[in-house]
Amino acid sequence: MPRVTIKEIARRAGVSQGAVSYALNNQPGVSEATRARVLKVAEELEWVPNRAARQLSAARSETFGLVLARTAETLTEEPFYMGFVGGVESVLSQKSYALALQVVADLDEELATYRKWSAERRVDGVIVVDLRVADPRIPLLRKLGLPAVLVADPELSDGMPCVWTDGTAAMNAALDHVASLGHRVVARVAGPPEYGDVWIRDRAYATAGRRLGLDVRVVHTDFSADEGAAATRDLLAAANRPTAIIYDNDLMAVAGLAVVHGLGSRSPEDVTLVAWDDSTLCRITHPRLTAMSHNIIGYGAEVTNRLLDLLNGARPQAHLYSTPLLIVRDSSGPPPV
Amino acid sequence: MPRVTIKEIARRAGVSQGAVSYALNNQPGVSEATRARVLKVAEELEWVPNRAARQLSAARSETFGLVLARTAETLTEEPFYMGFVGGVESVLSQKSYALALQVVADLDEELATYRKWSAERRVDGVIVVDLRVADPRIPLLRKLGLPAVLVADPELSDGMPCVWTDGTAAMNAALDHVASLGHRVVARVAGPPEYGDVWIRDRAYATAGRRLGLDVRVVHTDFSADEGAAATRDLLAAANRPTAIIYDNDLMAVAGLAVVHGLGSRSPEDVTLVAWDDSTLCRITHPRLTAMSHNIIGYGAEVTNRLLDLLNGARPQAHLYSTPLLIVRDSSGPPPV
């Protein structure tokens, strides 16, 4: 594609190249009629400012990077990521920044991606999700000097800039809710324990269970619908079965509800179900699911704004984005008598 | 971050710069012991080939672009996109290509994104989704000379390279299925009629309905769970209500099932439900949903491979990726007597 030049616009508009430059840069020195004519010609020719040239001098890629170390299957199932990406994009598109998205198999590939991006100066900074306990990405990002904002509790971020939601307060609210309904035997279908968010919820769940004098149990899964369904089936088949189940994501809660129905049981009459994240899924089941709700799109936007601030010289710090809010719906009720 | 140089690796490995170059480029001229030592030092120093320099000469960005003109809310709800992006990524990550993803409000912003990407040479090519009837993106992409593969039926692509699934055959299979169960009054909860895929399904649905002698009706929606639920409610409240409903996506089918349950009705005893796309959602409801199934991850991968082929000089053409396959599950049954 031939580039549209100032010279070509000047020729077509019948004015000098200087006049075109004034008009396009919105500077005084040309009449309004000339400015209008130049802008019209520029638009017809699909003219765009030569940002590539500006970029070379500014040494900025105007691109943020996001690596997701999950299988394509998990990403398809899990509503969280697309919402988060949508939130990131809602900020970047305003700034004319691009998002480089890379889906990789595991953390090793994620580390390799950061090395490559850094060496090739492909991104100005990265957003890091799914923090692990003692996450190996933190020392690498420090070594590379690659600006980063972690989506993680400050307990996990080792002093790196981070944006977080208060998982401990949320778990307290979830257990207070089921205890206040009268439930004494409660289970949680959790994500993998090596994920930092799950680790924080594990601790909060045990602590709140003791505080409330509940019989609490946990089954760890890989966050998938299949494992969520299997865990629910096992829990409901056990002696002294739980009358309330808290899930670490939406998808497993929806799968758990189907297991309840498949057993000929009902929610909330036989079992109270509480989901996490509160995507649309929780509102399109029957009964609609009680959930710990947070604004995932807003969360993605917040993280992106903090990374922009960081690149503009802001002091690295931890930002509490929100505390998830309990939304009580039809799947909550007292335990069966 | 200081760049790691050949000189620094040579110094640390205690060999000449020439030897480092031979070792790193996997050329003869150094012993295996030297090669191993050089590679070890290079790895310790986080050395990566200077692709940025190679890129400038090759004038390739090694980036593909994908614009999604949907709200962040819709993207969160709709499992299709994340699966498609996962499939695109599964190919790009093998090739060390990046994906530039942009979420925009509407087609005008999408057109502006292509202009910008083209002018700034940010992407080598683009993948275009959600084709409209007489889509304005086609003439723009031609004018810009930006390589593109459309995710669209050849009827919609105006001769541009495209990858498609056979919506007409799929709709025939869906209607044959419900007719063979004995249903005579059938409804379809469809997407927006300006979408090319919906337009093709609209035509196939009307034709197959006439062929089978069915009473067929259509309600167009915006693909959202809310409108899918509202359409289901209206259809089931009507006189001569349908005994089978076909949905244009999964999300609306799940929302429709909740409406059926909310009315105290059951599927398939009172109404047969057929979903489209067959994401995980269809397998985690109770009853599990019959669906037109296609491999969305594989579809994303196929489109990406065709765009790579195009950049490598392949002749532009239309590729039939697949015909969606009917997966019969528990939500299918004969009409109530």
TrEMBL record, chains A, B:
The keyword Protein biosynthesis does not apply. Keywords: DNA-binding, Transcription, Transcription regulation. Residues 4-58 form the HTH lacI-type domain. One of its GO terms (molecular function) is transcription cis-regulatory region binding. InterPro entries: HTH_LacI, LacI/GalR-like_sensor, Lambda_DNA-bd_dom_sf, Peripla_BP_I. Pfam families: LacI, Peripla_BP_3. This is LacI family transcriptional regulator.
